[in-house]
Queue: 3 jobs
Job 1
Amino acid sequence: MSTNAKFTVPGLNEKEADAAVQALDGRMVALIDLALTLKHIHWNVVGPNFIGVHEMLDPQVEAVNGMVDNLAERIATLGGVPVGTPGSIAERRNWSDYSIGKGLVTEHLGALDLVYSGVNEGHRDAIAKAAKVDPVSEDMLIAQLADLELFQWFVRAHLESSDGKLATVGASTEEEAAKKAANQ
């Protein structure tokens, strides 16, 4: 995939634009994957509190899809080429597919907490990279991170005990987080 800018916005040189495009592209891939994962959970969550979680996820999917569109359009604005084809997304990601199939609300939310942690950490890394070259891309990523952290809080509210302990603390895999959450 070629993301080298042949032109860019006034005030950025091609090297700076390419660095911003690279940071944005990684987040675009992560958010496409997140939107699909959220929809997968929406379809496969069962058990107590099913309807609340089922209905909580669709607005998150919609918001994340909007973030993807904004990133793709910023990439194009900078002279890059946003590529969102399924094969390309699979080739460019460096993580495994979401690992929980049909599962209880707590299991999915435990695993989703880990997913959001990874996505949000990646956004923070991209913010740091964008800050060096393009404040507009940096601001876009900061605004997205605020929403993504809010969504993670929605998930964590289901996993938190009354004394403030998070059920997924210490989990390093989705399966482990799901198990810990189910045993809370």
Note: The radius of gyration is 17 Å.
Job 2
Amino acid sequence: MSTVFGKVVKLILLERFGPVVEQVGSYLFQYGTNPLLYIMKYTELPLSKIKESLCILIKYNLVTFVTNKNENLANYTLKPDRILLMLRYPKYNNLIKKKFGDESEMIIEEVLQRGYWTASELILKVIERLKKNEQATSVSLVKDKFKSLVVAKYLVRMPYPKDDKPVPDLQIQDNELYIFPDIDNKILAQINAGAESMDKIPDKGIYWTINFDRFHQDMRDKIIVTAFTKKIDDNAGKFVELLLRQMYIRTMPWADSSNPVPILEIKDIIRKQETHKQLLAFFDQYVNVIEQDNSNLIRKAGEASGGSFQIFMKEAFIQFAWETIEQIVLEKYDSKAARIFRLVKSKKHIEPDQIQKLAMIPAKEAKRLSYLLLEENFLQIQELKKSNTNNGPNKTFTLFHINLEQVVRMTLEHCYKTLFNIMTRKNHEKEINKRIIVKKQRVDTIAMDMREKGAEEGQISDIEEMITPPEREILERIDITLKKLNTVELEVDETIFLLQIYLMYQ
């Protein structure tokens, strides 16, 4: 793990959990797996604070533990990649809201905020929130929403200790991961009405958490569908979406390539849906265009019954990675540099003189841009020696080439640095305007309390006028700046996710 990545992890922990948890997390990031006493020795924090910090990190699945050689002690390991996922929480909520509705979004939001929870407690909490928002709901409705999330594998059961040891060994069988506990609606309704205590919940000790892998599967599919929608049109995107959906019936979600999917299945689904008539009318043409696309997503696997197609996820993400890097070169330098990069990519190995001829760029500029890309590690060089037949001096050939995996890893480091800069800038904006922000929060709290007590609008207006017009202008500017930074943060994370998927398939 790089130093820049460590700085990003440190800022996320500081922002969400405070300086003590951040100090414990930073130590584990820097020194790796360690027991409690080592953490206490090097961080110089009180033992109680370290234990509390580790409990918080374990609760949110940011730290794991295993038994030490001494079975009474545990070794703790930080999961930095899991910490980075905290930046994607808004995306997870938005994804669930679009697919399942507001109740499901609240369920996911509560689990993300608390790390894990029992189904009964979660259902009751969501009902309480819906009532505050004056939304009609019932125990059975929220319970069905929870079940839907479990069936779709967005929620998964937490492992639990199977024996009584000083350091518990948390385990769970695969067939237990998605078994929903038997919960009586009447008992939950009685607890919700205050007729029964929380001790009566039927699923005590059965905890649920987020299955991030399932969310990432959807995000990966969205990248593919969006790519074909932008390249071709909405009908092509719909075709790819249905193809991916049918793939999961026959193939593991993260396989490099799928088992053959009969193309007539896709056609039958489109015919039944009756929503994409143009796709149905020009079905064969869409299949041919997508098959010939340079992303290499699908290839024909057979001729019987109209043919079957295989989906090649690994090939597609190799092309997506190439396109992403090419776009970065274009934006960071210029179109001539991007042309040189594409030329080296197409030729695989090429001499400097050939670049000048084939790229149709003046020799001096082509040389400057080639060595600029080399200096920035977008290109690499390889030297080949050819000996002379008359025992003369050896002749050396210099060839430019691209190591995509190396370039992707370098680009990821740049993305982490950008994230760090964005988060630092956000903290700076909040710090220099802390007085006005705190004042605004205090005024909003007083106004809210007065509304709840039934105060008149004139009284509330008097309170709100404590914020002067110049202060309102400053607050509006801060709000616009923070929104822009948050948007850029999410966009950078999209690039990180795409590049991580590419590396996962390697």
Note: The CA atoms of residues 221 and 244 lie 7 Å apart.
Job 3
Amino acid sequence: MGIINYYNISHAEVFVFDDFLIKQVKEGVKIDLEETKELKLILEEHFKNKKMAYISNRVTSYSVNPLVYKEVEKMSNLVVIAIIPKDETMRQSAEFERQFFNKPFEIFENLSDAIQWVQKIILNENKEAKV
């Protein structure tokens, strides 16, 4: 599981791996539909016709328009989201955001647990796709 690509885009750092990406949004950013477009370009380049997971490693403070999740949900190859909040306030925000996403969405205490979980989901998704 080595990193494939690294992007330092306008609002975040993105680390792309085989079956998932980790996104760390920059301090003070407001995530809205415009930022989603940048993410879609990365997904199309690295995960076209391939199931994948999105991990949000929330190491800085920023805000998310929860309606973004309705747009993200339309990405058929994105099957799961994992969030790692830095503090209780971020955890509460993630709990609220979960209501807007109708695919697996979990909140974790650390990055290792999140990676293990998303890899298990992707493995199951790929097995089901082959049946």
Note: Residues 5-130 form a domain with the Transcription Regulator spoIIAA fold (CATH 3.30.750).
